[in-house]
Amino acid sequence: MAEMAVTAAAAAAGTLRPCTGVSARSVAVLGRWRPLAPAAPAKLRLSSPAVRVPRATSPAAVEDGSNTDTDPIPKIIIDQDSDPDATIVEVTLGDRLGDLLDTMNALKNLGLNVNKASVCLDSATGKCNTFALTKASTGRKIDDPELLEAVRLTIINTMIQYHPESSSQLAMGATFGPEAPAEQVDVDIATHIDIYDDGPERSLLVLETADRPGLLIDLVKAISDINVTVHFGEFDTEGLLAKAKFHVSYRGKPLIKALQQVLSNSLRYYLRRPTTEEGSF
């Protein structure tokens, strides 16, 4: 299983504004991601933007579902763990998604090969469309975090374009959609961080927080600032929330309790909502 890693030197302390783009510093950090040796994935399913996101082509490609009193919660899962040869993406929006040909075309414009793996209908989550993505240039799974973020924003972009009602259910609706969410998730309440053992060589970081553009890059920066190596596992978008799963290590070993606490504190520091406009710089 191919994975990604980043090891970066500690950065100068300071506050960080929730971003809507990728800073030059973030790109520098991301440039040092490197593939890692395969490792057994943890059996856990969780329930960011310098690349120009192309728009979809034809609204007729989407099959509209019937309206309901309550709009379903959009859900996007980017899974790097379950398939060693491809990045698996699952998209759910109740029973309103059609064949998603528009989304497939938009993803191809990012230089990806798109194979539709399956379509399932679950009474709890609705219709789930699954794609297997590989880079057209290499035929391998996506190993670039900027491209992973572009994939996520492309799917959100097309979902909002062809299902405008989803705009108010997504944090990105305030950026891309016609209608921003009616309420905002309180970062201090929404953020949950847990770290578990994940074999003899690494630990498992599971995080839930309020979603925003650039979140994946902020997480990578916060982790790399304390010289912890990141092995990308899964990144989920569920309405206003984002859920991440990272395999992490320090010098090839699991994180000891003291370092786990340092990592948890560092993430909470970066994810907090600034109290003043000046405090966000």
From TrEMBL:
Biased composition (Low complexity): 69-79
Disordered as annotated region, ranges: 47-79
CDD domains: ACT_UUR-ACR-like (cd04873)
Keywords: Repeat
Domain of life assignment: Eukaryota
Classification via InterPro entries: ACR1-12 (IPR040217)
Keyword Thylakoid: no
GO MF annotations, alphabetized: amino acid binding
Biological role: Binds amino acids.
Protein name (database record): ACT domain-containing protein ACR
Organism: Urochloa decumbens
